[in-house]
Amino acid sequence: MPIAEVSFGQVLLVVLEVFVFFAWIMVLFTILGDLFRDHSLSGWGKAAWVVFLIFVPFLAALIYVIARGHGMRERAIKQQQEAQQEMASYIQKTAGHSTADEIDKLSKLKDAGTITPEQFEAQKAKLLA
């Protein structure tokens, strides 16, 4: 088909179709991700949802979002919180604050008279625990 025979409306229709297709793919991946993130659903239940999504995709997606939409939000928030906690612990671990550095700082505070030897020992025990 020569380019002169393609109208602007046809180009816009193709752009809309591509957008809807990618939106649909995103919805499917979101549902499948949530489906396999849910540990309360049995393997048979997950398999049934996958089969339902393959053979009756639009209806299955609509039913899934209506029936399990609230749980999707909770599971996504929980996963984000876990990822944030893991990132925070990784950053804290790799930031260079080792136990030896903290004990050295406490030792300097004890030598300067800022803390008592009893406080030093208590903080040291807490760090080593």
Describe this structure in words.
With 129 residues, the protein is mostly helical. The protein folds into two domains: 3-95, no CATH class; 97-129. 83% of the residues lie in helices and 0% in strands. The chain has five helices and no strands. It has helices at 8-37, 43-55, 57-94, 99-112, 117-128. The mean pLDDT is 88.
Largest sheet: none
Tally of DSSP helical segments: 5
Helix content: over 70%
Q: How many domains?
A: 2
The radius of gyration over CA amounts to 28 Å
Tell me the fraction of residues in β-strands, as a range: under 5%
Tally of strands? 0
Stretches where pLDDT is under 50 for at least 5 consecutive residues are none
User: What structural category arises from helix and sheet content?
Assistant: mainly alpha
Arithmetic mean pLDDT: 88
Outline type:
elongated
Q: Could you state the order of secondary-structure elements as H and E? A: HHHHH
**C-alpha termini separation:** 75 Å
List the helices and strands and how they pair.
Blueprint: H1 8-37, H2 43-55, H3 57-94, H4 99-112, H5 117-128
Provide key terms for this protein:
5 helices, about 85% helix, about 0% strand, single chain, about 130 residues, elongated, mainly alpha
Describe the structure in brief:
With 129 residues, the chain is mostly helical. It is built from 5 helices and no strands. The longest helix has 38 residues, at 57-94.
